[in-house]
Amino acid sequence: MITFFERLERTAYREADKIIVHSRGNKLFIEENRGIPKNKIHVINNWIDISLYDEVTRTGKFRREYGIDDKIVFLFGGVLGPSQGLDL
């Protein structure tokens, strides 16, 4: 199944007029691992306008609800896979 999707991915990259990625790392990965020319790949970095959002008051409700009042909590909002250099 993975082989099918890798073939599909390679075909999509090859047939696309332009490829938009969200980081320089993704651009380099596609160039180096998929053989796509540099001039076909463009980076548009993630961004956010923080003035559009109100600051929230921290109440601790989530921590209490899940019994993690005194725990260190890490949040990762990204992707883990080959393009991050992981050996899967």
UniProtKB/TrEMBL annotation:
Record field: transmembrane: none
Domain Glycosyltransferase subfamily 4-like N-terminal residue range list: 4-51
Pfam families: Glyco_transf_4
Protein name: Glycosyltransferase subfamily 4-like N-terminal domain-containing protein
Organism in which the protein naturally occurs: marine sediment metagenome
